Amino acid sequence: MDPILDWGVGIVLWFQMSSPSLDLPFRIITFMGNEGFFILVLPFIYWCVDRRTGVRLSILFLFSAYINSAAKVFASQPRPFQYDARVKQIVNAGGGGLPSGHTQSALVFWGYFASCFKRPLLWVIAGLLIILIPLSWYGGHGCRQCLTIDSGHESL
């Protein structure tokens, strides 16, 4: 057993004590980090908000997703529900758990979007989503998988 994975499982189990009462709000929040959300929002930004921002954000997002997919192959770390049978699989997730695609997508998309428009309220919303989207995957990732910037080094 890996002590860091064990610690992450403990945090996930603590969050899952609030299930099912947190399931619906977290499903709504986690949608804002799903591919389906980005498929809807990126064209909207391009066509209705600002073409330049839409193109740059799309390229940045796709490059980030490519890097994330490659990192998952190299890291090959299990998700909490694959590692410990006590963890309920609340979300449908395939592949490895490290690094978290939801966390990376939230950081890249919402961080860049807020930086483009430089409005204080947008920064607050982006910051909240960058924090809440990884938490909404309780059971899909452990804490280390949401805090990692590469395959094994935690950042704060």
From TrEMBL:
Residues in Phosphatidic acid phosphatase type 2/haloperoxidase domain copies: 57-132
Source taxon at top rank: Bacteria
Transmembrane segments: 24-49, 121-140
Swiss-Prot/TrEMBL keywords: Membrane, Transmembrane, Transmembrane helix
InterPro entries assigned: PAP2/HPO, PAP2/HPO_sf
PANTHER family: AT30094P, SPHINGOSINE-1-PHOSPHATE PHOSPHOHYDROLASE
Protein name: Phosphatase PAP2 family protein
UniProt source species: Candidatus Desulfacyla euxinica
Lineage of producing organism: Bacteria, Deltaproteobacteria, Candidatus Desulfacyla
